[in-house]
Amino acid sequence: MFTFFAILVLLAVLMAFRMPIAFAMGIAGFVGLAVQLGVSPALAVLERTFFDSSASFILVAIPLFILMAELLTAGDVTRRAIIACQAWLGHVKGGLAMATVGASVLLAALVGSSTASTAAMAASAFPEMRNHNYSQRLAAAVVSVGGTLAVVVPPSIVLVVYGVLTETSIGKLFIAGIVPGLLTAAGLAVVIKLIAHTTDQAPKGDPFVLKKAVKTSRHVFPMTVLVILVIGAIYGGLASPSEAAALGVMGSLIIVIFQRTLTFTKFNSSVSSAIRATVMIVAIVACSAIFSNYLAFTRITHTLLEFVATTEMSRGMIMAFIIVALLVMGMFMDQLAILSLAMPLAFPMAMALDFDPVWFGIVVTKTVEIGLLTPPLGLNVYVAAAQTGVPLSKIFRGILPFLAMEILVLLTLLLFPQITLWLPSLMVN
């Protein structure tokens, strides 16, 4: 047990010195294995684990979904989605902010990355809201919370990583994320409407012009069809997530070529960005597997499972403990780091308590989503602050009512699992 705590200290020290989470977990796991088994057996485990985890076919979905998002962003499709939503909703009080949430849902279905979605919103939606006399605090807060929808709404990279780490069906996770994602967006819109009617932070925008709204929507229509085809193929059992991702890449490439918005330089940049992001995620998955192997050899996971089986604590209490732990981790770490650190221990505990792995995955990603907004790290808030120039303290104050709604949605998902599991139960296997 002393060795285990020493390895945890080593992991904490490496992270404190800002070593990437993948390398920190890999080094700590290897050192632990070397102490437990010896250097030669540890190297053998390292070689086998790294190959087995990184050679998984399901990982093919990650670079494809990332490339799909990069192509659409480089092709200016995402900016046009924001303009279209603003044309339809901007004329009502708080409409521009609600349009930003609506555009965030579309972006979430395309980008799959919360920070990328937040950055895109900060660059386009924030200036538009400020031009219509929205308060800095509300505009920056809406940009921050809107970006978090990409964590739950498919095709979420976080859901893919959770599926790989826990060997849970990624297709079912994608479908399960639809209703919670839309429920979250509706909750954010309700908060915006309440703020608009009780304060002067969100005045009306430009008058509604049907011709302008229809004209801006024609650029978004192909993108919407593509999303429906990708998710529909998974839902109908016509394609695996990896095959649907390939369909998404092909469709996005066709869209940006026909709209003549993609240059060779932008295409090259998109491929490079997708490769960098993929390498980072695969490294996290592989190094997490090394650390998980160390936990297996120390029997820490087995000890926790025995505790769960013999404790007098209720299932709800243990689940609450897991949620609180994830929320605390979210105050200091990004979502992929949380998954790679927590799932080797939390997932076996949840399965021992007979929780559904798909439902647990959505609850975990929803909890991680809230962590993107909580201080002191609040990664999305930092991205929004860097892009907009609004002070961090002002944004953190602005997101408080939205955080309350996020927690309310999380509690709803915890108390009513069928909200999450209804759509996956109808899937064609």
Automatic annotation (TrEMBL):
One of its GO terms (cellular component) is plasma membrane. The chain crosses the membrane at residues 50-69, 105-126, 138-162, 174-196, 220-238, 244-262, 274-297, 317-342, 402-423. It is a multi-pass membrane protein. One of its GO terms (molecular function) is transmembrane transporter activity. Residues 8-419 form the TRAP C4-dicarboxylate transport system permease DctM subunit domain. PANTHER family: C4-DICARBOXYLATE TRAP TRANSPORTER LARGE PERMEASE PROTEIN DCTM, SIALIC ACID TRAP TRANSPORTER PERMEASE PROTEIN SIAT-RELATED. The complex comprises the extracytoplasmic solute receptor protein and the two transmembrane proteins. Part of the tripartite ATP-independent periplasmic (TRAP) transport system. NCBIfam families: dctM (TIGR00786). Belongs to the TRAP transporter large permease family. This is TRAP transporter large permease protein.
